Structures are given as C-alpha cells and as structure tokens.
Amino acid sequence: MIPQTNPKAAYLAQRDAIDAAIRRVLDSGWYIQGEEVAAFEREFAAWAGRAHAVAVASGTDALIVALRGLGIGPGDAVITVSHTAVATVAAIELAGAAPVLADIDECWTLDPVALEALLAAWPAGVPQPKAVIPVHIYGQPAAMPELQAIADRHGLAVLEDNSQAHGARLDGRMVGSWGRASAYSLYPTKNLGAIGDGGIIATDDAALAETMRAIREYGWRQRYVSDIPGMNSRLDPLQAAILRVKLGRLDEDVALRQAVAGRYMAGLAGLGGLRLPAIRAGAGPVWHQYVLDAGPRRDSLQAALRDAGIGTLVHYPVPVHLQPAYRGRIATGPGGLPRTEQAAGAVLSLPMFPQLTDDEIGTVVAEVRKAWG
Length: 373
Hints:
Elements: H1 7-13, H2 15-28, H3 35-48, E1 52-56, H4 59-69, E2 77-81, H5 86-94, E3 98-102, H6 112-120, E4 129-132, H7 144-154, E5 157-161, E6 169-170, E7 173-174, E8 181-185, E9 199-203, H8 206-216, E10 220-222, E11 225-226, H9 237-247, H10 250-268, E12 283-284, E13 290-293, H11 298-307, E14 331-332, H12 338-344, E15 347-350, H13 358-372
Parallel strand pairs: 2-3, 2-4, 3-14, 4-5, 5-8
Antiparallel strand pairs: 1-9, 6-7, 6-12, 8-9, 10-11, 13-15
Helix pairs in contact: 2-9, 3-9, 4-5, 4-8, 6-7, 10-13, 11-13
C-alpha cells in the first residue's frame, strides 16, 4: 500500500535528532512556554523572513489569535474562500466575525476578479468587511499582488492562511510576506508538521506581535493579570523542540516534494480530460498536495487507485458553504461559487510526501495512466 501521506516517515527520517530534542525538554523540567518555544519562534521568524513569530496550539488558533490581534470581531466581516479546510471559516466565526465567501480561480485560490465583484455588490445585511484571508491551498501561492492591491484600495487587512504553503514563493518573494500577518498550521501532515498539533503566526508588526502574545495566554502581559480578554492557546515545548529539528530540513523536504510533483507532471502529461495542477506565472509551489482535476471521473479513478493499493484523498469533498453547519447562513459573492462547487466534485490528491521512493512514484503514475485509459 502506498499511503496518501505518511507523517511517520518524517519522524523516522530524523528519529535520532527528534528523540534527543524530546529528551532535552523532558530533562529540562520546563513543560509550558519557556525558552524552547521562544527559540522556535525566533528560528521560524528568521526562516520566514519576518521580524516576529507567535506560536500557538493549532493552525485554527493561529487564525483566531491573528484576527483578534487585528481588532476584528463582532460587527465585522472577513472575506475568504469556501474551497478550503473548514478551519479557515470556523476561525472567523470563533473570532466573532462574519465570514463572506468568494469564488476561486484556476489555481483553486481566491480569485481577484471575484473579490472585486463581491466588494462592488456587497451582500445586504452583512457587516462591513475588515479583512480578507487568501488561502494558499495545496501549497499553491494565491495571486497576492492583485489581492493585496484590492485590499489596500478598500482598506482591508490581509491575513494570509499559509497552513499548506510553508516556503512557497511568488515572483521570488516568500508567500506569507504580503499581509499584516500570516498564519501557519503545524499539524502532523503539513510540510512543517509537529508530532501533535500546533500553529504559528508571523508578522513584521511589533505591536501586533505583542498583542497576539497576550491574547494567546489569557491577555497577560504580566503573569496573572489580564490586560485584555484572551484565551489559552500555547504551543508546548515538546512540540517546539520537535519543530526546531524539522525546520532545519524543511527546505530540503520542499525540494523533495517539488521533485515528486515534477515526476507526476511529466508522467501524467497528455491524458485527455485529466487536468494537472495549474501553476501561476512566477510561482514556486511547495506541493503540500498534488491535486488532479479528474472531472466526473474522479470517483472511478479514486476507486481504481484504491484497488491498486494507492491511497488518495479528496481535499475537499464539500465546500464550506454547502456543509450542514453552514448551508444557507453564510453570504457568498454575486453569482454564487460555481468554480468552488465544480472543484469539490473533481479534485483528487495523489500520494505526496518527501519520502516517496522513485518506485512508488512510478507505480502511482502507471496506475493513474492505466485507470484513465
């Protein structure tokens, strides 16, 4: 069986170093916050090219803390996409704001044209927008120069959801460097994944970083004294130590993912009706997922690959606005979300992780070609 993802392989690739990091924390006697977390924040900020990083308990919390740090809450609206992990939309509501959803472009990321149309025909009865969250889904950079320009014209804060795009680049610039802040998930399957849950926020704004540090720990700036309303969202030192080890080879792992994607691109080219991932001009994706658009044949292709011992997943089978918890109560752009709904019925994620072998990649390519006919 070739799994669709394999976080255990990432552990085994650095087992000795990770085990040593865990022992270091256990021996230290310091198990909440502390220097291990602070060191990871410094190292991650340096890697991301940002001045500050604030570690939290999950990628969802990274979005919540960042939104609250930006002063966004009840009475505000935040624009994002429906073709995303539900956490993006859930975080907006958990921050007290109203999500409003726009359609996607050919790269499955927020469409600047759809964003402009939404802002020009703002839904009646919905709070005014204060922010926009572009999602760099599958490790594909969104159209950030265009999106940032639109946000600037309308006075919107930009918070990038980088949960799937650690290290992606656009026009040579690191994704996550456009917005006021960028939020990352550190879930085990992510390109930089903990052995457990975690998240981190990066920013160049020192005042925003200070506010987010307070929010993540009860609003404390002085221990046991809450200056502002806060929450409990702390990355523990064990995860920080593990992530420091894994951060050291993140660029190498990204290069391996890019090599896997290159093999898929070459091996699957020319199959009529099977759309390979679109890559934006000037983009350097990091391939958290390698996603095909198989159209109406998606389910049959997935079944054939399953029978051949190849794991696949659908990211994501039901758009957020059509899920039971959200259907009928989340505003969308004019004309609805046709590209989003088409994608949900067509996308299929092939196996993608740095430790895939050449033989495994070859088997995946051969079985897709065989199934497609």
